Amino acid sequence: MYTQIVGKIRLALSPRTNHWWESPLYVDARGLTTSAIPYGSGTFEIRFNFIQHCVVVQTSEGKVWAMPLKPRAVADFYADLMKGLGSLGIDVSIWRMPVEIPDPIPFDRDRSHTSYDPEQASRFWRILTGVDTVLKEFRARFIGKCSPVHFFWGSFDLAVSRFSGRRAPERVGADVITARPTRTR
Q1: More exposed terminus of the chain, fewer Cβ within 10 Å: N or C?
Q2: Which of 4, 150, 24, 135 is nearest to 77 (CA)?
Q3: What are the distances in angstroms from CA 33 to CA 23, 43, 56, 156, 172?
């Protein structure tokens, strides 16, 4: 749920791009990051640090805010992160309902999900770094249009997409997520 909250912050503030490429997180040297998110006349970044087990928000103005990753209710994580962003002058509103899970509970009311295991989070991230390296090598050899290697926070899916340049066929009954990427919003 923590990554969904951060991902939805990125989604709310980033310029829209095709294929939803404005929404994923990226594997980095310490964990997962949003990369730079435009805000006002600057940018900020949110990083999950799975070595020191904290969430860090850094702005292009040099401001930094951090909180530990530890077992706590999703509602408390959400409240503290929003308060931390506010202390940096970042005001954002997100859709508080988790996606791609059964029986979702709005982030600000979720007191049932409280686990965080530092060892498992670190192991998961280390696996992601290995797969990220392989996918980047795979991506590098393709001369057509290709996505960056990215981590989709709703499905916990590390992915890279390659495109032939041919138009995809229409999908009857496709929703906004799975339809051909011609959306505007």
Answers
A1: C
A2: 4
A3: 11, 13, 9, 14, 35
